Amino acid sequence: MKKDMQQERIWAVQRFFAGEKPQSICASLGHARSWLYKWIERFVSDDPLWYQGKSRQPLHNAQRTPAEIEEIIKMVRLSLYNQGLFCGAQAIRWEMQELGIQPSPSLRTINRILRRHDLTNRRTGRYQPKGKSYPVLPADLPNQTHQADLVGPCYLKGKGPIRFYSLNAVDITTGRCALQPAFSCSGQNVIDGFWAIWKRMGIPKHIQVDNEMSFFGSPTHPRGMGPLIRLCLHHHIEPWFIPPAEPWRNGVVEKFNDHYEQKFLNKVTIHSQAELLHASLNFEYKHNSRYRYSKLGGKTPLQTLAALNKKNCVFPSRSRLLATH
Q1: Cβ atoms of residues 246 and 139 within 8 Å
Q2: Which of 199, 191, 174 is nearest to 287 (CA)?
Q3: Could you report the per-residue pLDDT of 44-98, keeping only the tens digit for each?
Q4: Which domain holds residue 17?
Q5: 83 and 93 in contact (C-beta within 8 Å)?
Q6: Cβ neighbours of residue 16 under 8 Å, at least 6 residues apart?
Q7: Kind and range of the H or E run holding 257
Q8: Has residue 84 been placed in a domain?
C-alpha cells in the first residue's frame, strides 16, 4: 500500500510536467489540487526521496520537559544519592524547590524521567500488621512518644572484630533520631544509653520498646522490674512493651533501623570506639537536619521541631538528677 501511494505521487508529477492539466490529474486520482501542488513542490526541491511521506509529528513538543530540567533532575538525584539521602521523586522535588529551581516539575514527570534514564530503586513493602489490635500512643507534640530499639551485635572493621550495639530512638512526632553506641547490652549500659539520648532529645512521656531482655529485666527475676522500667517510672515516663514477635508495632524505629544499616553500617568504615561515637553523632545530626519525610510535609525533623515552636529540652531538674544518681 505504501509503495502504491509513492508510485501514485510519481505518476501525478510526471503527468503534470508532460503538460496534462491539474484538473484532469486530480479527477482521475481522486485528490485535491493542494495534494498535487504539494508533491510538485517536493519534486522541485531536489530531494531524491521527495515522493516519500514525512512524519507529521511536530519538531518541538510543547509538553515535553526541557532538557535543562532533565539534567538538573539527574544531577539532584545523583547529589542526594552520593550524600546517602533519600533520592526518590518526592525528595528530588523538595530539593529543587529548596534550591529555587523553576519550573518545578510534577512527581509524575520526575518519575518518568528517572525511569527513562534507569535511575529508579526498588523499594521493599511495608509491614502487614496481623493479630490483635494494639493501642496507638499519642504523637501530637515533640517528646510525647519515643520508639526505641537495640540494634546488634554489630562489628567494627578494625584489626580484630570488636562487637558493639546501637541504641536507636526516634521521636514519633518530629522524626528526630538519636543513636547511642554501647559495647554491651547490659541493663546498666541500656539506661546509660537512654540517659545520653534524653539529654539530646529531651525526656518523653511515653517510651515504646520491644521485649529485649535488656529492656524489661532478666530471666532470673521475670516478675521484677528491670533498670529501664525503674528509671522510667522514677521520671514519670510510661514504658510500653510491644507484643512478642510483632516488630511492626514499633514500625517507625524499625524503618529507621533499615536506614541506619544501609546509610551508616554499610557505608562508614570505623576502626575504634572513639570513631564509632563520633560517626554515630554525625549520622544523627545529618538525619535530623537533612532527611525529608512525606509525613512531615517535606520538612526535616529539625525543621518540623522549629515549626511546632515547642521547647526541645524536657529534661528533669537538677534536684531530680541528683536524686537519681
Answers
A1: no
A2: 174
A3: 777 777 777 666 665 555 566 778 888 888 888 888 877 777 788 878 887 887 7
A4: 2-43
A5: no
A6: 22, 25, 36, 40
A7: helix 251-260
A8: yes
Give the cell for residue 125.
Answer: 513493602
Strands 206-209 and 238-241: parallel
Query: 140 is written with which cell numbers?
Result: 501530637
SS3 180: strand
CA distance 172 to 253: 9
Whether the per-residue pLDDT at 244 is higher than 80: the answer is: no
Asked if residues 140 and 173 have their Cβ atoms less than 8 Å apart, the reply is yes
The residue with greater pLDDT, 194 or 7, is 194
CATH of the domain at 314: 3.30.420.10
CB 173, CB 139: distance < 8 Å: yes
**Which cell is 320 given?**
531530680
List, for residues 1-18, the tens digit of each pLDDT value.
Answer: 556 788 888 888 888 888
Check if the beta carbon of residue 43 is closer than 8 Å to that of residue 52. no
Asked whether residue 29 falls in the same domain as residue 162, the answer is no
pTM greater than the 0.70 cutoff: no
> Each residue of 59-69: pLDDT tens digit?
555 566 778 88
Q: How many CA atoms lie within 13 A of 124 on its CB side?
A: 6
Residue 316 lies in a domain: yes
Residue 73 placed within a domain: yes
Instruction: Examine residue 304 and state whether it is found in any structural domain, yes or no.
Output: yes
User: In 3D, which of 289, 263, 300 has the Cα closest to residue 84?
Assistant: 263
Q: Residue 306 is placed in which grid cell?
A: 522549629
Same structural domain, 176 and 247:
yes
Q: Do 266 and 207 share a structural domain?
A: yes
